[in-house]
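Lecture notes, continued. The same structure-token format from the folding unit now serves as the input rather than the output. Read the line below as a description of shape only.
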């Protein structure tokens, strides 16, 4: 009996060891908790099928596989890299022709900025299985709708490749680095309007519209690239900071048959942006979205492809700013679907081809967060929204007339959908704070699950061994009466009678969200690791963040960093009064906008915060780009106080706590200049602080062991200073 008891005790001790397995930075940031995904999931347009890019570890090859939506069965392998020595390095990305009989395959990709890259491109014929190299290091190649030609950009000029003859025609000739760009966006458009390809084919393949960027007058920014060379090199590019000159943009229509271009007359506009451009279903009607520099007035233009004359079909105005999206969808008769915040929440609208409002499709005090498409046969719209709470996402269908709404997702958390071309099925991607990402096949009529595809059970079982805490969602009401979404991660062995230090995390940028019910990011595991070491982590989405209506989001207009900082300080004061919190030990952390915030909070909330970590922070909005900054602050010339009263660099004298400042030296987005100016200000204020610069790392600060070293550094700082 005694021996059995000893065995039981030993068994239970072993179980506890497993149950209390400790997280490490090395595990977290080397991908130990990576979720299984459907890589490059792409719904075909002409058949009820989808593709997934798979990797075969045994042969070290990649396969682009075709699956049936109804059965989830693999139909065939479209292309296997092991059959083509030219693709030995794999498939980085791909684009189908409109008839889906041809494929453009990219490899040997070289990143430029956030979205842009050059790559070697190959043309693959699905029937003949012939692979033809088009050219090296192209940008944004796109098939003409008839599948006979391919447009592409190279070295700031536009070209057309004829598939039959393999002949290349040069469309523009004036492209020049740091001077003129044709058909590809400049740095600030790419970063802030989130698109790179600035050209488009007409429906009949006879015309090519493109935007020309004259950035010759835009001030240059230079970064030192160190590498391991004896002499570092300088990387210089055009970067318009707030209030400085932007690229002058112009719009052209190129006639493929005549080889001539016509400029669209935009003479009514001054200092403007062409935020979007695409052809409508009418082969002779081009559409462009023109924004004024303040971004509070948007004109939707219809442009005659022959005469290049334009007319305004829709105008949107806003007291603050207008968000630009990719939701504009043209129907067969050139009526169109549009999303807008004009009633105070983001909703779906349908207009006729003249721009007359036909119907508001969705209504309510909640936001549409994604538009998935329209089934024209049944006149049914599919979308994602936060109707059931701003921290969740659900999938819906609704009639184009705004009637017969059906909720298609069933589980509480974050749901998103990829629909089959006939809108009969959708693949639902679901996760929550307690459920790793699962992919299921669902019926689009009622949302019922048909079959499981990926369940990430192995990850769920792995995580159990760590006995990790769960995020607790709640609402903080500040002393000023502001109700703010929040989550908290407590130690698993939490004792309400103890006093715990609190580590606050936030981003806080306009329209952003960190408090949402979805599966763990790498940072979440880090916060849980800190909980194993006795820290409580809290995240609060203050005023200015998204998905709670336009008024909540846009209240920070012209004063970035004022109300957001107040909210974090006020939230820290509320949390500090919890019986189980040591209010003398509250810290705060953030990256980018979050770094701007954490710096401000430490300086302005010197009596509240003991420490702060700021990674890649904006320290004065005068240093940041024109499109983003002016959207929320207007120019420094117009709103100097909006810049200066809330920039942490101006409040370094208030520093009392412990401060860790981190930046990558090759950050093309938030320039190292921000941290260098902050360092100098701190030095001249005779303030002690810690800092780290990561050579040749961009805004993300990653590569090799970088993330591991960085997060170990931050962990040690927290343990020492909090």
């Amino acid at each position: 009996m005694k021996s059995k008891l000893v065995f039981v005790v030993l068994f239970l001790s072993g179980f506890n060891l497993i149950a209390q397995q400790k997280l490490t930075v090395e595990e977290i940031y080397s991908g130990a908790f990576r979720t299984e995904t459907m890589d490059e999931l792409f719904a075909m347009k002409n058949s009820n099928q989808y593709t997934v890019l798979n990797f075969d570890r045994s042969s070290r090859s990649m396969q682009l596989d075709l699956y049936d939506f109804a059965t989830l069965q693999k139909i065939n392998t479209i292309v296997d890299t092991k059959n083509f020595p030219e693709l030995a390095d794999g498939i980085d990305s791909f684009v189908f022709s409109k008839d889906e009989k041809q494929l453009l395959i990219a490899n040997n990709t070289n990143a430029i900025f956030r979205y842009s890259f050059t790559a070697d491109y190959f043309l693959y014929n699905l029937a003949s299985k012939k692979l033809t190299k088009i050219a090296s290091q192209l940008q944004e190649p796109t098939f003409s709708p008839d599948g006979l030609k391919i447009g592409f950009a190279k070295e700031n000029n536009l070209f057309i490749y004829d598939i039959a003859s393999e002949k290349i025609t040069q469309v523009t000739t004036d492209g020049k680095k740091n001077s003129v760009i044709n058909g590809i966006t400049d740095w600030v458009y790419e970063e802030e309007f989130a698109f790179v390809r600035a050209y488009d084919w007409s429906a009949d393949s006879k015309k090519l519209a493109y935007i020309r960027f004259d950035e010759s007058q835009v001030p240059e920014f230079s970064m030192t690239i160190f590498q391991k060379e004896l002499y570092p090199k300088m990387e210089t590019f055009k970067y318009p900071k707030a209030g400085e000159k932007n690229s002058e943009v112009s719009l052209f229509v190129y006639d493929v048959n005549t080889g001539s271009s016509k400029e669209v007359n935009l003479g009514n506009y001054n200092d403007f942006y062409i935020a979007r451009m695409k052809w409508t279903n009418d082969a002779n009607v081009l559409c462009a979205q023109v924004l004024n520099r303040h971004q509070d007035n948007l004109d939707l233009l219809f442009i005659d492809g022959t005469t290049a004359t334009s007319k305004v079909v829709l105008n949107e105005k806003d007291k603050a700013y207008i968000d630009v999206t990719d939701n504009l969808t043209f129907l067969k008769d050139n009526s169109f679907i549009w999303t807008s915040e004009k009633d105070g929440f983001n909703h779906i609208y349908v207009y006729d081809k003249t721009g007359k409002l036909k119907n508001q499709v969705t209504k309510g005090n909640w936001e549409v967060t994604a538009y998935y498409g329209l089934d024209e046969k049944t006149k049914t719209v599919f979308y994602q929204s936060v109707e059931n709470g701003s921290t969740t996402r659900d999938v819906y269908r609704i009639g184009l007339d705004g009637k017969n709404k059906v909720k298609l997702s069933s589980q509480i958390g974050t749901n998103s959908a990829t629909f089959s071309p006939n809108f009969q099925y959708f693949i639902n991607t679901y996760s929550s704070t307690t459920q790793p990402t699962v992919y299921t096949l669902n019926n689009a009529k009622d949302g019922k699950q048909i079959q499981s595809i990926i369940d990430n059970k192995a990850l769920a079982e792995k995580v159990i061994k760590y006995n990790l805490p769960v995020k607790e969602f709640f609402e903080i009401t500040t002393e000023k009466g502001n109700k703010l979404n929040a989550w908290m991660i407590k130690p698993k062995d939490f004792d309400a009678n103890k006093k715990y230090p609190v580590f606050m995390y936030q981003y806080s940028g306009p329209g952003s969200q960190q408090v949402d019910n979805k599966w763990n990011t790498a940072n979440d595991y880090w916060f849980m690791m800190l909980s194993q070491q006795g820290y409580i982590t809290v995240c609060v989405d203050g005023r200015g963040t998204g998905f709670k209506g336009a008024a909540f989001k846009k209240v920070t207009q012209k004063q970035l960093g004022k109300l957001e900082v107040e909210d974090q300080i006020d939230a820290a004061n509320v949390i500090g009064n919890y019986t189980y919190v040591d209010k003398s030990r509250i810290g705060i952390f953030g990256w980018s906008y979050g770094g701007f915030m954490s710096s401000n909070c430490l300086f302005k909330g010197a009596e509240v915060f003991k420490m702060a970590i700021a990674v890649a922070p904006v320290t004065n909005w005068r240093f940041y780009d024109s499109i983003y900054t002016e959207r929320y602050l207007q120019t420094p010339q117009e709103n100097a106080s909006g810049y200066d009263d809330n920039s942490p660099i101006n409040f370094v004298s208030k520093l009392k706590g412990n401060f860790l400042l981190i930046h990558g030296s090759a950050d093309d987005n938030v320039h190292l200049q921000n941290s260098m100016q902050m360092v100098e200000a701190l030095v001249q204020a005779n303030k002690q602080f810690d800092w780290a610069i990561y050579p040749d790392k961009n805004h993300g600060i990653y590569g090799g062991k970088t993330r591991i070293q960085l997060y170990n550094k931050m962990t040690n700082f927290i343990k020492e200073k909090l």
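Point for the exam: Residues 37-170 form a domain with the Methylamine Dehydrogenase; Chain H fold (CATH 2.130.10.10).
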